[in-house]
């Protein structure tokens, strides 16, 4: 049976969480409150709109629709400034090793990300050419933990959902992969990602034998 491999972007392929954090922190500061790294954990895998809603709840800030829309734009403008100079040096360790192996073995690869900035980031770091399909925040109506993003990716790869493997660093993403009946692989803290079928701290821990088993399994 043909297998498909789906990768989340932020926190799996590149460490952009730090740039999202800086942009949200700046906005919180302007609104008169602090935003910590611990609080930023809650934003992983979460859509931009939902992040702003949570941020405003944290700061107990009431916003008109107009203010809300302005802050959404402002956060993204700041984020784009932070990622402007991203290059291949920001790819997380050993990600290209796994992508290269999958491509060599003609295994279809998709991106399944909540971000609306996914494509330009893949271009900047020079990994776009590995992907047979890209499903991101521009293509979905329901955010993770809803499985929509991964189901769409499977459809675009022309692979059954149950034959897909998902790499994720966010709890919402693992839940989405499990809801899609895919094999979920947690990248990061095993305690946080305890619902994943397999856990690794990062890609340096993933052997080619393991990938081969997933392809054949
Ligand atoms: C996810 C990130 O991948 O994308 C979230 O983990 C982020 O932190 C979300 O909020 C949306 O990203 P963007 O680039 O569309 O603001
Ligand atoms: Mg992520």
Description:
This protein is of the alpha/beta class. The chain folds into 2 domains: 4-14 and 91-216, Rossmann fold (3-Layer(aba) Sandwich); 17-83, DNA polymerase, domain 1. Helix content is 44%, strand content 11%. The protein is built from 9 helices and 6 strands. It has helices spanning 17-30, 37-41, 48-58, 65-83, 95-104, 118-125, 148-157, 171-179, 208-216, and strands at residues 4-7, 109-112, 133-135, 164-168, 183-187, 198-200. The chain has a 6-stranded parallel β-sheet with strand order 3-2-1-4-5-6. β2 (109-112), α6 (118-125) and β3 form a beta-alpha-beta unit. The longest helix has 19 residues, at 65-83. The model has no long low-confidence stretch (mean pLDDT 97). The structure holds 6-O-phosphono-beta-D-glucopyranose (BG6) and magnesium ion (MG). 6-O-phosphono-beta-D-glucopyranose binds at residues 9-10, 20, 43-48, 51, 76, 113-117, 137, 170.
Shape: globular
Report the bound ligands by name, code or SMILES.
Answer: 6-O-phosphono-beta-D-glucopyranose, magnesium ion
DSSP E strands, number: 6
Question: In terms of per-residue confidence, which ranges show pLDDT below 50 for 5 or more consecutive residues?
Answer: none
Helix content: 40-55%
Largest sheet strand order: 3-2-1-4-5-6
Which percent range describes the beta-strand content?
A: 5-15%
CATH superfamily of the largest domain: HAD superfamily/HAD-like
Tally of structural domains: 2
Number of helices: 9
Distance between the termini: 9 Å
Structural class: alpha/beta
What CATH architecture of the largest domain do you see?
3-Layer(aba) Sandwich
CATH topology of the largest domain: Rossmann fold
The succession of helices and strands, N to C, reads: EHHHHHEHEHEHEEH
Q: On the 0-100 scale, what is the average pLDDT?
A: 97
Q: Tell me about the biggest sheet?
A: 6 strands, parallel
In angstroms, what is the radius of gyration? 17 Å
């Amino acid at each position: 049976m043909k297998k498909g491999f789906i990768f989340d972007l932020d926190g799996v392929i590149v460490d952009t969480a730090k740039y999202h954090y800086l942009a949200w922190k700046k906005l919180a500061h302007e609104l008169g409150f602090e935003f910590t790294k611990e609080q930023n954990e809650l934003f992983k895998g979460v859509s931009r709109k939902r992040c702003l809603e949570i941020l405003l709840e944290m700061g107990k800030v009431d916003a008109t629709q107009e203010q809300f829309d302005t802050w959404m734009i402002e956060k993204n403008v700041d984020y784009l400034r932070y990622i402007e100079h991203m290059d291949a040096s920001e790819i997380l360790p050993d990600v290209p090793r796994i992508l290269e192996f999958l491509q060599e073995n003609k295994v279809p690869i998709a991106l399944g990300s909540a971000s609306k900035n996914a494509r330009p980031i893949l271009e900047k770091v020079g990994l776009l050419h590995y992907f047979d399909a890209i499903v991101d925040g521009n293509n979905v109506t329901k955010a993770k933990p809803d499985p929509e993003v991964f189901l769409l990716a499977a459809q675009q790869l022309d692979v059954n959902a149950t034959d897909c493997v998902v790499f994720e660093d966010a709890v919402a993403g693992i839940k989405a992969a499990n809801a899609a009946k895919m094999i979920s692989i947690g990248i990061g803290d095993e305690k946080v990602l305890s619902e994943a079928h397999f856990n690794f701290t990062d890609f340096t821990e993933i052997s080619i034998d393991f990938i081969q088993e997933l392809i054949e399994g």
